[in-house]
Amino acid sequence: MSGFVCGVDIGGTFTDCVLIAEDGRVAFGKALSSPGDSFQSGFFGSIEAAAEQFGLDGTAIYQRMDRLISHGSTVATNIVVERKGAGIGMLVTKGFEDTTRIMRGMGRAAGEPPETLLKVAETYKPEPLVPPGRVFGISERIDSQGQEVVALNEAEVAAATAALVAEGVEAIAIAFLWSVRNDAHERRAREIVAEQAPGVFVSVSSEISKAVGEYERFVATLINGYVGPVTSRYLRGVQDKLAEIGFSGELHIMQCHGGMVPLGIGADRPIFTIGSGPVGGLIGCARVCGELGTGDVIASDMGGTSFDVGIIKDGEPLAADDTLLGKFRYRIPALEVISIGAGGGSIAWIDRHGGGLRVGPESASSLPGPACYARGGTEPTVTDADVVLGYISPDATFGSERDGFRPDRALAERAIAERIAGPLGLSVTDAALGIVEVANAKMANALENEIIGRGFDPRDFVLMSYGGAGPFHAVGYAQSIGIKTIVVPGEAASVWSAFGISQADIRYQYEASVVMLEPFSAGRVEETFAALESTARGALSAREDVARFEFRRYARMRFQWQLHELEMRLPDGPIDDQLVERISREFVALYTERYGEAALLPGARLEIGSLRLEPAIPMGSLSLDRLKIDQRPFHQGTRPLYFQRGAAPVEGDIYNGHAMSVGEPLAGPAIIDLAITGIVLPPGTTCERRQTGDFVINLNPS
Residue 574 class from Cβ within 10 Å (0-12 exposed, 13-18 middle, 19+ buried)? Predict the structure, then answer.
C-alpha cells in the first residue's frame, strides 16, 4: 500500500493521530481536543504533529494519504450528554407514544453506580430527548410474523410531518412495531416525510437496528436522529476542509462494531460512531494477539476523561448485548466496551455527606484541564496526583512537541492541598496517594465486574494497558485482581486507540430479524444469508470492488424464554445440518461458561433471533515496525517516588523508555518515561522490552 494510512481518535481531553508509512514505520501525534471549534483544530493539529516525525508539512501529508479514518465518537456522545442535539420529532405506532419515556420502568436505575441505587430521592429518569408533544402516534400495525394487520394511514403521516416542520424540527425519527419483520410501513413513511420536508434528517428504525424489543430499537432510532444533523455537518465539514488542503480520498468513519465505513454511509448513521474510539483500542489489541502469544486479552484504556475496558477471547473481541449511553439503553451491532469516569483528568472531591474521598466521574477535560496544566484549572485531578508523587516527569510534554506544555508541580500541590489534604488533615503526598488509590480501586472494580461477570477468570488473561494515563496506573489496578502480566504497547501506548482505528477493516452490516426454534433448518439459515448477500452485493457494487469482500456470518442465539443472547460466528463454507448442530453445541458450552449451569433452563429449546452478514474488506497494514531504540542515554538518574502513605519517598531510577534495549529486565522502584505517558514500576515488579517494541511488566517476578 503506497503512501500513508492515518487513524484519528478524538477523545474528551486529547485528540490522537497515528500515521503508518508504506514500509511499516509508525509515527504519532497528539493535540488538545477542541470542542470550541467543533474539534477541528485538534483533529488537524494531531495529524500535522505526526507528519512532522516523517519530515512532512501540513500540506504534503494530506496529498500522500491512502485513506483517512476518523471516528467522531466524542462528538456524538457529547451531543447526547450535553443535550445539544437537534430539535427532533418522532412517528411511532399509535398507542406506543410513551415507549421511550416509560424506559421499561428501569430508567431511574439505568447507569447508576451501586452506591446510589438506593438513594431513590436523588436519582431521576432523564429528560426525554424528544418532548412528548412532538411524538405522534400513527395508525398502522405489522404483527410479529411480518403480516400487515392495519394499513398505514398516510394522511396521518403527512399531517404529523407538517406539524413537526411547523415547529422547526431538524430531524424526524420513524419507529413502528415489528418493522424488523416487515419495514414496508417505515419505508413509505420515510418517502412521505422526504416529500414534505426534504431538508430534514430522517432516522428509520429498521435501518438502524434489527433487534427485537421496541424500547431499545426506538431509543437507537431516536438517538441517531438527535445527533444526526450536528454530527453530519461536522463530518462533512472535515471532509470539505480535507479536500481544500489536498486530500483526494473519502473520509472513513470508525464504527462501534469494529469496522469502518465511508463518510457517505457513516454520516447517515452517526449512532454507530458512539463508543468507536475505545473500540479502536480493542481492534489494535486483536491485531497484535499473535505477537503477544495469546488470544485472551483484557484491553484497558485510561485516557484523560474515562477508563474503558474490553475483552478479547480466542483472538476475537466480545460483542455487546446492548449499549448504555447515560441512562438510555439501546441495541445495535457493537463490541463490548464498558466505561467509567476514571481518567487522568478525573476530579478528586470530598463527599459532603460521608466525608470520604471520591474521584470522578466529573473531569477537568482539556479546558481548563488539571491544575498542573496552568490553563486556569483549580480542581485536583488524578494527573495532579501523579505529578506530586513523582510518577510524571517534570520535563514531560502534554500534547505535541510543537504546541505542548509541561506540568507545573506547584499548581498541582496547591490544588491538592486546598481541596483535599487540608480538609482531610493529610499531607499533600498522602492525599495524592489517596487520590491514586481511589482511582485504582474504581478501575480494578470495573475490571472485576466485567471479567468475572462474563464468567472469566482474570488470571487467565494478559492485560494490555494504554491511553495517556494507563501505564502510570496499570500495576495499581491489575494487581488486586490477580493479573500477572501487563503489556504496554510500545511507544504508541498513549495513542493506541488511534492505532487500532488505522488497522480497522471496512465493514458493512446487513441483518435479518428471524424466529427460528430448534431443531433449526439449515436450508432456511442458508437461504436467509443468501438473501442478505444478494442485497449487499447489489447495494455495494457501485461503491466497492465486491470481489475483495469477505462475507462473515453471525447468528444471535438464546434459550427460548430467556433474555440473555450470545452472538455466534459461523465458519465459512456451506451451511448444512452438521454445521448448525455444531454451532448449537458451541452456543450451549459458551452460555454455560458465561452464565453458569444454573442459568440453563431445562426443556427450553434454542432460538435464533437474528442473522447478520458482515461484508468486510481486510485493510490492516501487512507489516509494522513498532520498535525504535533511541540513541539518547537510557538511565536518566533518580527522583523521589511515593508508593506508601505515611512513608518517606524512595529514590527510584528513571529510564528513557525510547532507549530501552530488548530483553534486558528492569526492577522497580523505577519509572520508564515514554512520549506523553510513562510506566510506573513499584517495588517487587519487573519490566522488559520485546522485539515488537512492547513493554512487558511481570507482577510476580521469580
Answer: exposed
Q: What pLDDT is stored for residue 492 in this prediction?
A: 85
pLDDT at residue 1, rounded to an integer: 38
Give the other-Cβ count within 10 Å of 355's Cβ: 9
More confident residue, 202 or 407: 202
Question: Between the CA of residue 174 and those of 87, 190, 441, 608, 610, what are the distances in Å?
Answer: 15, 8, 43, 26, 21
Residue 250 has pLDDT above 90, yes or no: no
Contact 203, 221 (CB under 8 A): yes
Grid look-up 517476578 returns 701
Instruction: Decide: 37 and 327 in contact? Cβ < 8 Å.
Output: no
CA angle (257 as vertex; 253, 263 as ends), nearest 5: 20
Q: What is the number of alpha carbons within 13 Å of residue 335 lying toward its C-beta?
A: 28
- pLDDT value of residue 405: 77
All cell numbers assigned to 22: 508504506
Residue 64 CA to residue 69 CA, distance in Å, equals 14
Q: What is the DSSP letter of 203?
A: E
Helices (H), 59-118: 60-63, 73-81, 99-102
Grid cell in block for residue 32: 488538545
Sign of CA dihedral 472, 478, 480, 482: negative
Strands (E), 194-317: 201-204, 251-254, 260-262, 297-302, 307-313, 316-317
DSSP for 653-676, please give it: EEEEGGGPPBT--EESSEEEEETT
* Grid coordinates of 397: 510534554
The whole-chain average pLDDT of the chain stands at 89
Model-level pTM?
A: 0.87
C-alpha cell at position 25 = 514505520
157 φ, ψ to 5°?
A: -60, -45
Contacts of 286 (CB under 8 A, 6+ apart): 297, 312, 315, 316, 317
Q: Phi and psi at residue 432, in whole multiples of 5°?
A: -65, -40
| pLDDT tens per residue, range 298-330 | 999 998 888 899 999 999 999 888 888 888 999
Q: How far is CA 361 from CA 145, 344, 346, 353, 436, in A?
A: 45, 11, 6, 17, 14
Listed residue (17, 3, 169, 7) closest to 91, CA to CA: 169
Q: How far apart are CA 108 and CA 18, in angstroms?
A: 40
Task: Locate 526 and state its grid cell.
Answer: 442458508
Set of cell numbers at residue 557 = 442465539
Could you tell me the CA-to-CA distances from 40 to 47, 208, 238, 388, 678 in Å, in that order? 11, 27, 7, 33, 28
Q: For residue 451, give the 3-state DSSP assignment.
A: helix
Residues near 323 by Cβ (< 8 Å), separated by ≥ 6? 256, 274, 275, 329, 330, 331, 332, 334
- Provide CB contacts within 8 A for 254, sequence distance 6+: 7, 69, 70, 71, 72, 73, 260, 273, 276, 277, 279, 280, 501, 504
**What is the spatial distance between Cα 279 and Cα 12, in angstroms, rounded to a whole number?**
15
Residue 71 has pLDDT above 80, yes or no: no
Mean pLDDT of 602-607: 88
Q: Minimal CA–CA distance to 474: which of 482, 491, 484, 486?
A: 486
DSSP 118: T
* 146 in Cβ contact with 176 (< 8 Å): no
**Is the C-alpha dihedral spanning 475, 479, 485, 486 positive or negative?**
negative
What is the distance between the alpha carbons of residues 316 and 286, in angstroms, rounded to a whole number?
7
- Closest by CA to 475, choosing from 488, 486, 467, 466, is 486
Model confidence at 623, pLDDT cuts 50, 70, 90, reads low
Contact 563, 599 (CB under 8 A): no
Q: How many residues does the chain have?
A: 702
